[in-house]
Design goal:
Layout lengths: L6 E6 L2 E6 L3 E6 L8 E4 L5 E4 L11 H9 L3 E6 L5 H4 L2 H6 L3 E6 L6 H10 L5 H12 L9 H4 L4 E5 L15 E6 L2 E5 L5 H7 L3 H9 L2 E3 L21 E4 L12 H5 L7 E3 L4 E3 L1 E3 H4 L2 E6 L4 E5 L3
Parallel strand pairs: 5-6, 6-7, 10-11, 11-12, 12-15
Antiparallel strand pairs: 1-2, 3-4, 3-16, 4-5, 8-9, 9-10, 13-14, 16-17
Amino acid sequence: MPKHERHLCSCAGKKKVRVRHMSTMTLRIFDVEHGACTMLAGPSDAIAMIDCGHNGSTGWRPSSFLRNNVRRAYLDYLLITNADQDHLSDLSTLRQSGINIRHLMSNARVSPEALRLIKMRSGPITPDAEAYLGMRTGFGAVGTGIPFGQGMGGVNVSSYGLSYPTFTNTNDLSCVFFVSFGSFKMLFPGDIEKAGWRSHLQDPEFRTHLRETTILVASHHGRESGFCEEAFEYLRPQAVVMSDKSVIHGTQEMVPAYRSKVLGDGIIVTNEQSRRHVLTTRCDGDIIFRVEDNGKYTVTVRAQ
């Protein structure tokens, strides 16, 4: 009998009723304004986090959330999509607060030395970027240790990254993650832009993942530069999520474009009983997906 699947038998006359206990994954996209931070808990006790942004207006930080809400001093897996400050802004605090990060996943096709050179071209390196570069050096090869699917109890991740110096900007060097549980698949493309999308589209395996994607997190927080028309020849999500803030980077102007690419009538937000094509942290606050191992899922927003 699989670890997370048990059958309970009860007698009703001569009939036996078999009840299957579902394994679940919870995926919470936090409102960190123009940044990114998602926390993921699977059937096991392990926790993963995708990016490490914080909310400068409310003061919310993943380091405090782990300590005070989750009540643990370690993070099993940290996945970094993009090495820019809005994706890293709580990393130095996370480490200074004693949170032990056990595994790091990011774009292994860009060396720490190359990444340092790229970051130095745009100005001084922030403490958070220094923390990330230190992890890239100190952790050894990206992806070593307990495989993600094993550690996360059946939640799997597939990652894709482009190489340096073929690409020299941090956006197109984003690590693209497909997180899957059962038939459910969510795409986290970081801040990848059109040229990066087009390069990935040459890979048949990447195109297969696009066809299987259930939910898309919009690249580059929904900016036009992250919208690639060609990708939607394969990608037809049931909904799109934007991690963004109030009008500053033109993300609102892209909502109609993303809405037009959503398959069917969108999804139901259960605690609002509304049907949606595009959800934004700007309007909806935290966005939580609860996924069963058969691929069925529910969505709630503004969770406390």
